[in-house]
Structure formats: C-alpha cells, structure tokens
Amino acid sequence: MNILIVDDHPLFRHALIQAVRYSFPQVQIHETAAVNEFYERLEKGPEPDLVLLDLSLPGASGFSALIYVRAQYPAIPIIVVSAHEEVSIIQRAVAHGAAGYIPKSSHPSHIGEAIRQVLEGDVWLPPNLPLNLSFDARAADEAALAERIQSLTPQQFRVLMMVSGGLLNKQIAYELDVSEATIKAHLTSIFRKLGVQNRTQAVLAISALNLEEKRL
C-alpha cells in the first residue's frame, strides 16, 4: 500500500508517519509539504492508494486542493487531517469529496481505523460527530462553485491559485515558464468557466472555499 501525506508542518508529518506505520508496518509512505509538489507527484505517478491531506496549505485556498484532486484523480480516496474541528468544516469537506476527516487532536488509533474503513469503501468521521448533519443553501452554492472549478484544466487551476495569491500576470508567466499572452488566454478561459468578469471577481469566488466560518 502506498500512502501520500500532504502537510506543511514537518513535526506533524513525522508524527503522522509514525501513527500510520503503527497500524500498517509494511506501508510505503511518501510525503510532501507544498501544493505544487503534491500536484507534480500525482501527475508523474504512480498514483497513491490513499492521500492524507491537510487543508491549511500554502498555495491553496481552503478546500481548493481537495476539490482539484477529486476532479482530476477521482479514484484516489482522500482523508482530510486537519486542526479544524468545527462541524461545518467537516461537513463541507465531505461535501467536496473527502472520504474521511481526522481532527489533529484525535487519538492515534483513529488514524489506522480511518484508513482501514476508507480503503474498504466507507466514509470515516470522528466518533463524537453529531449525527444530524444538515446542509443549507450555502452548501449548495459552494457545491456549484466547486463544480465550476472542477472544469478547469490543471494549468488553469494553477493560474487561478497564483492569481488568488496576488501574483501578477508577469510573475505567473515567469513561474510557469510561459508567455504573458498564454496567461491572459488562461485567465479568459478561467473567467468564463467561473462565470466572472475579472481578476477581483475570480479571487472573491475562490475565497468562498476558505475555511473561515461563513456569516449569515
């Protein structure tokens, strides 16, 4: 079994590796700390059997990494491992395709339990989670946004994340080693797919996927 751990905190990655190996001594574990490295590893393969994903990653906007990977690699089950323990965050993660959700305060035994259950095709959630999870109209709006984001190509998604990070066209072109004209063409397609008119509206749209509690 091949598991990929994606978390930008070295100390927690080490602790998570130890917890996984306790339940699965023979497992192959790979790790990455950055979103771009995560995407590159998936593109070059081989695909992992399971991903343990932190939501608070530099270069990602809340649930964007989860949404992107679920769209591009639907066969790979993803368990979110996060310091966020709010029911609403867990609710949104499951809505966006997470097969499990492990709060970072969980007992180490829950990690092995969650992995086994998810690999068997089930969803694993914290034992103390309320059973009456309900989804409101905001969840439907977010699901619609996620669907539009899933229509982006991998390169368009990278451009969108860089735009949301405040980079200018010239900077994005340099980072991706393409021309500014190519970036402008990508942005035109991104705006069309997201149903927005400009960069500001695109950034506002993607910010809806952030982890902060939404206000009524």
Automatic annotation (TrEMBL):
Q: Where is the HTH luxR-type domain?
A: 145-210
Q: Which GO terms describe its biological process?
A: phosphorelay signal transduction system; regulation of DNA-templated transcription
Q: Which Gene3D superfamilies match?
A: 3.40.50.2300
Q: Which organism is it from?
A: Acinetobacter larvae
Does Phosphoprotein count among this protein's keywords?
Answer: yes
- Give the record's keywords alphabetically: DNA-binding, Phosphoprotein
Q: Which InterPro entries match?
A: CheY-like_superfamily, EvgA-like, NreC/VraR/RcsB-like_REC, Sig_transdc_resp-reg_C-effctor, Sig_transdc_resp-reg_receiver, Tscrpt_reg_LuxR_C
Q: Does the keyword Mitochondrion apply?
A: no
Name it: DNA-binding response regulator
Q: Which domain of life is it from?
A: Bacteria
Write out the GO MF terms.
DNA binding
Q: Which residues carry this modification: 4-aspartylphosphate?
A: D54
**Location of the Response regulatory domain:** 2-119
What the entry lists under PROSITE patterns is as follows: HTH_LUXR_1, HTH_LUXR_2, RESPONSE_REGULATORY
